[in-house]
Amino acid sequence: MTALTAVRGMNDILPDLTPRWRDLEAAATGLLAARGYQEIRLPLVERTALFQRSIGEVTDIVEKEMYTFTDRSGDSLSLRPEGTAGCVRAMIENGLLAQEGATQRVWYAGPMFRHERPQKGRYRQFHQIGVEAFGMPGPDVDAEQIVLSARLWETLGLSTVSLQINSLGTPQSRTAYRERLVAYFSQHERSLDEDSQRRLHTNPLRILDSKNAAMANLIAGAPSLPDSLDAASRAHFEGLCGLLDAAGVAYTHNPRLVRGLDYYTHTVFEWITDRLGAQDAVCSGGRYDGLVARLGGRETPAVGFALGMERVVALLEDAGIAPTSLAPDCYLVWAGAGLAPSALQLAEQLRNSSGLRVIQHCGGGSFKAQLRRADRSGARFALILGEQEWAAGNVQVKPLREEQAQSSVPLSDLAQWLAQQGLGAGR
Ligand code: ATP
Ligand code: MG
């Protein structure tokens, strides 16, 4: 029988790692709320056609990475490979962009699915925090999102990421650039790898995105995108640069940055790192002014980004940043059936009135065995409830992490005593 292991590339996130995930989520949700972004929760499964139409048929994701299946009703469905398509669908379907001039700021977090070759920083189920803003055409909101992401790294204490930006310009600029690219790569058709040959006439911009090192020289010689930008595109990009300068956010203009998806216009950006090997993109996004209309909504400018949570968590670990501890404060050790109600009551009282994290020992056993568990739980103190002590109104407090004598503390002083150690109300 095949072992019932997890599916390749789909990971368990075990309790020793979840505090880091929580830190990331808490920092992000705080910064988002402070800027008026509201959470939206979306299905993990959508119609395959949604991704074909939004991400584009000739993209890595749609060509070879999607988990697509036919359900029992015969509909072709896919696990979402990214969040923007579903988010735009939900905006349109629920009429959130129906009013002339409507604006929306939303975010979501959750798993995405892509059938890629699993390696460090690249998985088949991975998680993103996605941020999208609708209805605002100018570089002001592009800057808002880039500054927000910069603030997130700062809040987390991460300094190992750097920002690259570029502009794809208006659809007209992009079309003009596309023609110059096709002309250039056609001259070198025989030097193109198989993927790039296929893309030459379907999606030539994507050739610039190639990860094949053998293509690097050819790509370096390709016409430069900024030369194709029209006046409106330049003004948008210069506006963004000015705002980033004013906000003190450092960036590099990378004219080769085009991003993997079909729907970008104007601003594209990527936070990259050299700490995760080949998986250097931590957070990426840009403007996608055409997508809402393409999916059947009214013409609405939009900008968004997604960050890869696994990669940010890996960077936190790499930087040696300690996660916020959620270790228990106390482990309550007790013996004697007669004390069961008192133990339960004491643990509840410490949790509810003093905000302490208390594990009450369950499952019986000798004091010695219970103390071993107390030690393993990571708690700072064992609270020992013995029959005689209890009758006298006292609890024994045994420090588990520090060289400190065990002491007998009157029950009435216990919460205050622990607060003085920096726990509960003293935290
Ligand atoms: P890459 O170039 O690494 O394949 P991408 O351009 O496909 O990334 P996006 O679609 O822009 O990535 O997704 C946004 C972010 O999600 C990326 O910057 C990255 O941090 C993360 N990400 C993308 N694919 C994966 C994956 N398979 N496993 C883990 N994280 C991923
Ligand atoms: Mg990819």
Q: What does it look like?
A:
The protein has 427 residues and is α+β, with helices and mostly antiparallel strands. It folds into two domains: 18-170 and 230-318, Bira Bifunctional Protein, Domain 2 (BirA Bifunctional Protein, domain 2, 2-Layer Sandwich); 330-420, Rossmann fold (3-Layer(aba) Sandwich). Helices cover 37% and strands 20% of the residues. The chain contains 15 helices and 16 strands. The chain has helices spanning 18-33, 48-54, 60-65, 84-93, 139-156, 171-187, 194-202, 216-220, 231-247, 291-294, 309-318, 340-354, 367-376, 387-391, 414-420; strands spanning 38-39, 45-47, 68-70, 76-79, 104-113, 125-134, 162-167, 252-253, 265-272, 281-287, 302-308, 330-334, 358-360, 381-385, 394-399, 407-410. Helix 1 (18-33) runs antiparallel to helix 5 and helix 5 packs parallel to helix 9. The longest helix is centred in the middle third of the chain and has 18 residues, at 139-156. The chain is elongated. The two termini are 51 Å apart. 37% of the residues are buried. Adenosine-5'-triphosphate binds next to strand 6, strand 10, strand 11 and helix 11. Residues 60, 260 line the site of magnesium ion.
